[in-house]
Amino acid sequence: MGSTMTPWTEWEDYNAGMWNTRPIDEAKVVLSVATLSDLGQFLETGREMIREWQTAAIHNIVSLKTGRRAWVGQASCCYSHKATSAETRQAWGQLANMEQRAANDIADIIIAEYNEGRTSAETLFGH
Q1: 76 with 50: CB under 8 angstroms?
Q2: CA distances for 107 relative to 59, 73, 96, angstroms
Q3: How much is the pLDDT for 119?
Q4: So what's the pLDDT on residue 39?
Q5: Is the dihedral of CA 87, 44, 55, 102 positive or negative?
Q6: How do residues 51-109 score in pLDDT, each as one tens digit?
């Protein structure tokens, strides 16, 4: 279906465990720091995640007006190495302000590319 009408239990981020409340796995935090601070890796992982997780993306990028950057980072880390949102938030806190700004810039690129792709598809196919 791919719309915001899809129940959250069918979203890819939920099914991958992004919202799992397990105890923090420090190894996942380290991997998340690495993903978010390696801008090339973050960009490529985020692009791949968006392509693969269309149902979650349409809700979290198109429907939400805030929190889109955070979702892109958390979903990318979950997609990459099964980090939970809590593990990614902990990793975020370990980044320097300059690294956070750079990661937000990458998230903005991913969001813009996603929105541009949707606009092109809607123009071409009327969806």
Answers
A1: no
A2: 16, 7, 16
A3: 60
A4: 98
A5: positive
A6: 999 999 999 998 777 799 999 999 999 999 999 999 999 999 999 999 999 999 999 99
Contact between 110 and 47 under an 8 Å Cβ cutoff? The reply is: yes
Amino acid (one-letter) located at 98:
M
Q: Is 68 exposed, middle or buried (0-12, 13-18, 19+ CB in 10 A)?
A: buried
pLDDT for residue 120: 52
CA separation for the pair 91, 32 (Å, rounded):
6
Sign, Cα dihedral of 103, 109, 115, 121: negative
Cα gap 85→126, rounded to integer Å: 35
In terms of pLDDT, which residue wins out, 4 or 58? Answer: 58
Distance, in Å, from the CA atom of 47 to the CA atom of 53, rounded to the nearest integer, reads 10
Amino acid at 9: T
Q: Tell me the Cα Rg of the chain.
A: 14
